[in-house]
Amino acid sequence: MDLLALQEPIVQAPLSGGVSTPALAAAVSQAGGLGFLASGYKAPAGVKDDLRQLRSLTAEPYGLNIFVQQSVPAPAAALSAYASALRPEAQRYQVDLGEPRFDDDNFAEKVELAVGERVPVVSFTFGCPAADVVARLHEAGCDVWVTVTNPSEAVQAQQSGVDALVVQGFEAGGHRGYFTDGPDADDLGLLVAIRLIAGSVGLPLVAAGGVADGQSVAAVLCAGAVAAQVGSAFMLAPEAATSAPHRAALAAPGSTRLTRAFSGRQARGIVNRFMREHGDDAPAAYPQVHHLTTPIRAAARQAGDPDALNLWAGQAHTLAQAAPAGEIVRSLGAQARVAAQQASRRLGPQR
Questions:
Q1: Average pLDDT, the chain
Q2: 275 pLDDT exceeds 90?
Q3: Exposure on the CB side of residue 200, measured as CA atoms within 13 A
Q4: Fewer beta carbons within 10 angstroms: which end of the chain, N or C?
Q5: How many domains does the chain have?
Q6: Do 245 and 306 meet the contact criterion of CB atoms below 8 Å apart?
Q7: Cα 49 to Cα 78: distance, rounded to the nearest angstrom
Q8: Do 171 and 210 contact (CB within 8 A), yes or no?
């Protein structure tokens, strides 16, 4: 897919975990951007239903995101200790803790689904698919993108034959896209990441992280990206399935922080009680911790209680507007054009 052919240089973040809907992706694509569906945490049959619903709403290109789960030894003692620490939370919400198990989120089945459905763009997060997987998707006519956070990951992805990179800065909401989520992970801000990665590979770059208005869209385009991936800015749209307590938190002033408390993997969300009380104790064990806390989060969501929810949000979440997704796309594009023109006038002709 030619990203430069997009009417608006806006890519919707996949927004895994319940926010993503076919209606949201379709609205973004219809408005000239590129909408995305999330497959994370969903059964393949449900993803297939979402794809068919999306295609009933638009004939425009769209994308599908797939997780690359890497099996690493879970720290059994730390997991057991964290489960013990969470039992009062389970009692508070009158649920049992989930089973802290590893699974690969049906990776192979979802790749086969993307191949069979000939999805225009397939993106991968948390790692890079093997070259043979990339080749199989290419044979089906799919473009392949990978989320990267540093130049080393970008080089690895380019060697696998992918078509474009989503460059995720430290500012981004939700899970960090590190290939290896360890204590030595390099956390780069978005502009630094774009410039370093642009000097390391020759692939088109889509910039993600703290991009929530047209001025920031213009900034990442000037930095070398060909499009901006926007997440938090779409979460107040009526087409998004954002829960009521999450919507309220996004619209209010509130700081964000990286935490493992909800899933065992570093993710940025709005600070709440659960994060404050459990962030220091959560082990690096994904998706085991995700499964462990799922019943608590589901009960809190049902009760409308934001204190035990993963309120994923980027650092610029207060810039989000409650407006239809198509209107947001067009507004971001218009604002970006004005900002670029202003910058051009400020620079003026060379003296």
A1: 96
A2: yes
A3: 21
A4: C
A5: 2
A6: yes
A7: 38
A8: yes
Do 129 and 268 lie in one domain? The reply is no
Whether pTM > 0.85 for this model: the answer is yes
Cis peptide before 287 (omega within 30 of 0): yes
Whether residue 282 sits in one domain with residue 334: no
The answer, yes or no, to whether residue 185 has pLDDT greater than 90, is: no
Instruction: Give the number of other CB atoms < 10 A from CB of residue 139.
Output: 9
122: phi then psi, degrees, rounded to nearest 5 = -120, 120
Starting at the edge strand found earlier in the chain, the sheet holding 267-270 runs 174-175, 267-270, 256-259
pLDDT band at 351 (very low <50, low <70, confident <90, very high): low
pLDDT digits (tens, 9 = 90+) for 77-122: 999 999 999 999 999 999 999 999 999 999 999 999 999 999 999 9
Mark whether 125 and 206 lie in a shared domain: yes
Residue 184, pLDDT score: 79
Same domain, yes or no, for 113 and 83?
Answer: no
The end-to-end CA distance of the chain, in Å, is: 40
Contacting residues for 45 by C-beta, under 8 A, at least 6 apart: none
Owning domain of residue 284: 74-103+243-320
Residues 171-182 have a mean pLDDT of 94
Beta bridge partners of 207: 167, 228
Same domain, 193 and 298: no
Whether residue 209 is found in the same domain as residue 120: yes
Q: Rounded CA gap, 96 and 90, in Å?
A: 6
pLDDT for 347: 86
Based on the domain organization, do 146 and 199 belong to the same domain? yes
The C-alpha atoms of residue 88 and residue 340 are separated, in whole angstroms, by 53
pLDDT tens digits, 49-58:
999 999 999 9
* CATH number where 333 lies: 3.20.20.70
> Contact, 328 vs 5, CB < 8 A?
no
In angstroms, the CA 299 to CA 174 distance is: 20
Longest CA span, the chain: 70
pLDDT single digits (tens) 224-260 = 999 999 999 999 999 999 999 999 999 999 899 999 9
Which ranges constitute the DSSP H helices of 75-119?
Answer: 76-92, 107-117
